[in-house]
Amino acid sequence: MSDKITFRVNGVERTVTADPQLRLLDVIREQLQLTGTKRGCDNGTCGACVVVVDGKARKSCRLKLEQVAGAEILTVEGLSQNGELHPIQTALIEAGAVQCGFCTPGIIMELYALFTADLEASEGKIINALNKHLCRCTGYEAILEGALLAQKRLQSKV
């Protein structure tokens, strides 16, 4: 059974006709062709599929399409402005926190949601947010360094 479900993705209203029980991850990647959101574990463990839904970091492999009807969704593709990377993206690159890049979009979106809600988040809160993500390449020190650098740069823009 297919339903029409409408939501906003990266500021654009989208209506898809699909089974409401489909995972948001599948709709984002296959129907909307936004492949920055990665498929990893399919069970909510790795964090590669994180997107921001109504301001909160959510694992899109765990969300059914019907759960996002009317929602505002932000994917990693929606972060850059006028061809310029978001400060979180540039800080992670500069800190050497990007190697294969598979986990990076989910981490970026997790940090975006955290810093949007709490730009003064403690290092402990940042670590807690990053603990929801698996990375097999860089090691977590570079990721934390990039997150702290991003936070500092975002704070200086306020």
Structural notes for this entry:
By secondary structure, this protein is of the alpha+beta class. Helices cover about 35% and strands about 15% of the residues. It contains 5 helices and 5 strands, in the order E-E-H-E-E-E-H-H-H-H. It has helices at about 25-30, 85-95, 105-115, 125-130, 140-155, and strands spanning about 5-10, 10-20, 50-55, 55-60, 70-75. Strand 1 and strand 2 (about 10-20) form a beta hairpin. It is globular and about 45 Å long. The model has no long low-confidence stretch (mean pLDDT about 95).
Please provide a brief summary of the model.
This protein has 158 residues and is of the alpha+beta class.
| CA distance, first residue to last residue | 47 Å
The pLDDT mean sits at: 96
List the quaternary state of the chains.
single chain
Helix-residue proportion: 25-40%
Give short descriptive properties of this protein.
158 residues, alpha+beta, five-stranded mixed β-sheet, 5 strands, globular
Tell me the layout of helices and strands.
Elements lengths: L2 E7 L2 E7 L5 H8 L18 E4 L2 E4 L12 E3 L12 H8 L9 H14 L5 H8 L9 H18 L1
Parallel strand pairs: 1-5
Antiparallel strand pairs: 1-2, 3-4, 3-5
